Amino acid sequence: MSQFSQRPFSERTATWLQQSGLHPLLARLYAARGLETPEDLSLELRNLISPKELKNCLSTASLLADILERKEPMLIVADYDCDGATACAVGLRGLRMLGGPDTPIQFLVPNRFTMGYGLTPEVVELAAQQIPKPKYLITVDNGIASEAGVDRARELGMEVIVTDHHLPGDRLPKATAIVNPNQPACNFPSKALAGVGVMFYLLVALRAELRQRGKFTNETQPKVENLLDLVALGTVADVAQLDRNNRVLVSNGLKRIRAGISQPGIQALFQAATRDTRKANTFDLGFAIGPRLNAAGRLADMTLGIRLLLTDNTDEAMALAQELDRINRERRVIEGGMQETALAHLAENQLTDSMEQRSSICMWHPEWHQGVVGIVASRLKERFNRPAIVFAPAEGAAGEELRGSGRSLTGFHLRDALDIVSKREPGLILKFGGHAMAAGLTIRKSDFEKFDALFQNVANDLLTNELLERKHIHDGALAPSEFTPEIGDLLAEEIWGQGFPQPVFYGEFEVTQQSLMKEKHLRLMLRPIGASELAANAKPITAVWFNRTQSLPAKAKLAYRLVTDRYQGQARIQLMIEAHDEAASA
């Protein structure tokens, strides 16, 4: 049974925030998310934490300034997800902006299927073949675990600058410089920077260094803040914790998108996704724009996505965005088939009903696509509220290896769990890495059952019944007068995301109509039930519950999001149902 509870907040703080001019509903929501003073509301760029506090940022900026002055060739080694692509585009655009258009800099994205993740020795060999051969390799969104790759680069006469945000392993690579808020002895107050955020910080420090060297003044310096639309996209799409520092970055990036002055590639992605840039929000970035960019890395080559983010030609941008949209539709079809197969396997083996006895899910199939396993793991995690790892055959390994991607629950650190498995059975996991909530790994196909059993044991040791119980934290009820398009617009404009969750409300409704859309989504007409006459006489509200086919009782207590839907110039509210409190509705 699911557990429903309201997110607590201080009435006193909410009143204080309201008195500063904030809307009463936002004052309550912000107080529940830890904001304490009116000063906390400001998301101006001047509120960013200084690059001085990011370990090695200033010294690495000085090194980059020397490289730019000497015009030494550089190569950015990117990751193949949205964070890596945006970080690469920010790095390339920023270094050319600061060093001049003739800055000798290229980029390279490893093939996720044949070269694996990060700066591997194979990637380094490929980098050394570029013309001109780079003197410096700059990693973005990877590199902190690339000991062998960094060693190989030095053997081939190349230096490595690591910019990353992932958790380090037991040893750091012997790179020329490492900028990562999560490296040992880094006291940067925000550990939540995405890879694109780290790269942006390095550019800010580099601009200050070049200004100090007299290359330009405050008035003539390049505007690296023009790259914040890319920073916002990468940060939200990577599900980075939206602490205040990240909300400053995302807020200012969204301002550029809404003002119509974002990169042509981002504008083209919005157009391909039929989203309005004037009303761009974090939901668009995370669920419409990010997935289209990610699709290139999942099924094809992220070079396509980076080319889109680098072009200044609107026609080329539109053509590339349409191609990414096509690839994303293909990804959805593949994902849907894999999900059906996974659920059918669980049902056939009578695991669905016994999931209460399991603490984790591990699955693989010989026909599954390596680029989509992470999404399927995420779907299984959401459906069963268990950490899930999904594997597919690794390309280029003669069918003997499986490459997996996992998603976790709050309170169960997935990378640390894999580390425990690797220590209990050395050699079982060939390689792994990641975060608390997501991780990737490679194992031998012959070791799948052994891994499944060991991972299940670790999950049993670390997960409590409380962690495994599905929790729905909501923001209480909306007043009848708050069911308006204006409130929907107000909520959509704010910066919500991981660690600063989008508001979910809770209330009792009369279900006046219900039907299925496309055989898999529940469409409802709801009337709020309340003591006020306004609620009793309220018109029914349209609601949608995606991926739900089971009907609701005549009266139901529901958790929902309120959004504004626009059709043919008319604005109306719509409720997106998140959960049904069956215990309270009984």
- Mean pLDDT comes to 93
Structural class: alpha/beta
The total strand number stands at 17
Query: In percent terms, what proportion of residues is strand?
Result: 15-25%
Report, as a whole number of angstroms, the end-to-end distance. 13 Å
Low-confidence regions: none
Describe it for me?
The chain has 586 residues and is of the alpha/beta class. The protein is 41% helix and 19% strand. It is built from 20 helices and 17 strands. The chain has helices at 11-19, 24-32, 57-70, 82-99, 121-128, 147-155, 195-212, 228-237, 244-258, 264-272, 282-299, 303-310, 314-348, 373-384, 414-424, 448-462, 465-468, 485-492, 533-536, 582-585; strands at residues 3-6, 74-77, 105-108, 136-140, 159-163, 177-179, 361-364, 388-393, 401-407, 429-434, 438-444, 471-474, 505-517, 521-528, 541-545, 555-567, 570-580. A five-stranded parallel sheet has the order 3-2-4-5-6, with helices on both faces. A hairpin with a 3-residue loop joins strand 13 and strand 14. Helix 5 (121-128) packs parallel to helix 6 (147-155), helix 12 runs antiparallel to helix 13 (314-348) and helix 15 packs across helix 16 (448-462). The longest helix has 35 residues, at 314-348. The mean pLDDT is 93.
